[in-house]
Design brief:
This protein is about 20% helix and about 30% strand. The chain has three helices and ten strands, in the order H-E-H-E-E-E-E-E-E-E-E-H-E. It has helices at about 5-15, 30-40, 110-120; strands at about 20-25, 45, 50-55, 60-65, 65-70, 75-80, 85, 85-90, 100-105, 125-130.
């Protein structure tokens, strides 16, 4: 009997109680994280252990993932760079530069609205929107 990994089940478990924001900001990842850390008082750090690697067209693409774990909470924040060398982590959202995932704890609608409004105050941010999990075709690309 051959065992097969159920990617849909793993994806559903990964996104249970998760919230995802899409951000348009024409800044390098390190510049954007610096702004978030300094102005919004987060402590995002590049986590190379969960960097996303995708192989398409016989090439490998690397998507940086920055992580911040809230103190005294199980809530973690992950900031994904959505594009690398002409490829996209979520091709259905090519217009987005970054994806901000919150998971590990239930995130209220009030908290999401406060976070969205805070991100909008940062220099160069053009758009912040919450993405509906059902509309994301390639959400398995966000798994680490």
């Amino acid at each position: 009997m051959k065992l097969k990994l159920d990617v849909e089940e793993i994806t559903a478990g990964f996104f249970e109680d998760a919230r995802l924001l899409g951000i348009v900001v024409p800044l390098k990842d390190y510049q954007f994280c610096w702004n978030i850390n300094n102005k919004l008082l987060f402590h995002f750090r590049n986590n190379s252990d969960i960097e996303i690697q995708l192989t398409k067209k016989k090439r490998t693409y690397f998507f940086c993932v920055y992580q911040y774990d809230e103190p005294n909470s199980s809530l973690s924040h992950y900031l994904y760079k959505n594009h690398f060398d002409g490829e996209y982590l979520l091709p259905e959202f090519k217009h987005l530069d970054y994806l901000w995932l919150l998971k590990g704890d239930v995130v209220s609608n009030d908290m999401i609205h406060i976070l969205i409004n805070s991100i909008k105050t940062l220099n160069a941010v053009q758009l912040v929107t919450e993405l509906n999990n059902e509309k994301i075709k390639n959400k398995s690309n966000l798994l680490f």
